[in-house]
Every structure is written in structure tokens, then in C-alpha cells.
Design goal:
There is one protein chain. By secondary structure, this protein is mostly helical.
């Protein structure tokens, strides 16, 4: 029967533990996203610099995060860096470092692309009005660039939330790890535990990610009108 075993979700403190794991997942994702966005906007502005060496350094930073899998970065920071520098680093802190740097790299490319896609006459008009360098960016370029990079930024946010499931491999007890522990403990008593637990985890990820998609669509529609 399909409904046999669904009680595994509410047995004991299983549901409470899953919600606690989800809180860790969301905390890692949103703190990393906030830090990554702040750094990424600054790097995106730097990437429009006239100096080739500066653009090359920023491009290199982006490529190393695109080429090397996030899982490898997690291992480098959690196992490699702590061994080399003889420091103790909590798994969640290591995850925050890696996801923040990854978010900054991806966000910088979104900002650069949005700024460079703006018509040249926008810059010329701003200068003709006597705006300073920072005034030009603050009042003319950045507001328009935000609209253009919004879909990509929301896509990055949902990717980051989903990719946090990798943190179980460095010992972080997130919602996926809690689910695995519950399944292992319940498998003999409830053979269908994996279906119900992973089904609930799927639903939890959907509940977290779907509002971001709706928010993006709503903002796009408002700005288009």
C-alpha cells in the first residue's frame, strides 16, 4: 500500500529533526548568497575596468570556480586548508566560505554582463547631465543592470540552495543527512521509509525555491509594465 510507512515522518522527533536540518540548509544558502551578492557586485564593477590585468584576474577567479567542482572546493577548504594551516574549521563555516566565494564569482559575471549590455548612450547621457562616476553608476547604470541580471540572480539562488546538499560530505548535518539517518534507523521496520523521507525533502526544497521563482517573475512583470 502506498500509504504504508508515511508515519515514519512523524514518529518520535523525526519531523523536528528534518526541520532543524532544513534550517541549516537555508542558513548556509542565504548567508552565502548575501555575502556572494555583495562581493559579486563589487567584482562585477571591477570587471568593467579599463585595465586588462584587472579584468584578467577577475576572469581567472570566475573560471577556477566554474572549472573545479564545488565538491572539490569543499574538500580543499575543509580537509586541505585546515591541514596545511593547522587550524580547526567547522564544516558549516567551510561551506559558507566556499559557497560565498562561488556566489561572488557567478554574481560578478551577471553584473558585468548586465552593465556591458546597456546602450552606450546611457553613459553619454549621464555624463552630459554632469553626473560623477559614482553618480552615473548609482542613478543610471546599476538600476537598469539590476533588472537585466535579476533572472540570472534568481537562478543562481536556487542553484545554491540545491547544491548545499553536498555539505553532507564534509560532515554537516543538513536536511539530506538527517533524512539519511532516519532512513537507516527505520529501514528494517519501515522498508518504504526512503520514499516518504526523500519525498518530504523534495517538497521542502520546492517550498524554499518556488517563492524565489515567483518573486523573480513578479518583479520582471512589474518592471516591464
Amino acid at each position: 500500500m502506498l500509504n504504508s510507512g508515511i508515519s515514519v515522518i512523524t514518529e518520535g522527533i523525526n519531523l523536528q529533526r528534518l526541520m532543524g536540518g532544513l534550517l541549516i540548509t537555508v542558513r548556509i544558502a542565504f548567508i552565502s548568497l548575501a555575502v556572494g551578492c555583495a562581493l559579486g557586485i563589487l567584482l562585477g564593477l571591477v570587471r568593467t575596468s579599463r585595465w586588462k590585468i584587472v579584468r584578467f584576474a577577475c576572469r581567472l577567479y570566475l573560471e577556477v570556480f566554474r572549472i573545479i567542482p564545488i565538491l572539490v572546493w569543499l574538500f580543499i577548504v575543509y580537509f586541505g586548508a585546515t591541514g596545511v594551516f593547522d587550524i580547526h574549521l567547522d564544516g558549516e563555516v567551510a561551506a559558507l566560505i566556499v559557497f560565498s566565494l562561488w556566489g561572488a564569482a557567478e554574481m560578478s559575471d551577471l553584473v558585468r554582463g548586465a552593465l556591458e549590455s546597456l546602450p552606450k548612450h546611457q553613459i553619454e547621457s549621464g555624463r552630459a547631465l554632469g553626473l560623477s562616476f559614482w553618480g552615473l553608476y548609482r542613478y543610471v547604470l546599476i538600476p537598469q543592470a539590476v533588472r537585466r541580471m535579476l533572472p540570472g540572480a534568481m537562478n543562481l539562488a536556487t542553484r545554491m540552495i540545491k547544491t548545499t546538499s553536498l555539505v553532507v560530505l564534509i560532515g554537516v548535518i543538513d536536511v539530506v543527512k538527517v533524512g539519511q539517518q532516519i532512513i537507516e534507523l527505520s529501514l528494517l521496520k519501515t522498508p518504504t521509509a526512503s520514499f516518504w523521507i526523500y519525498g518530504l525533502i523534495f517538497l521542502l526544497y520546492f517550498i524554499v525555491c518556488y517563492p524565489l521563482s515567483r518573486l523573480s517573475k513578479k518583479l520582471e512583470d512589474r518592471w516591464d509594465n
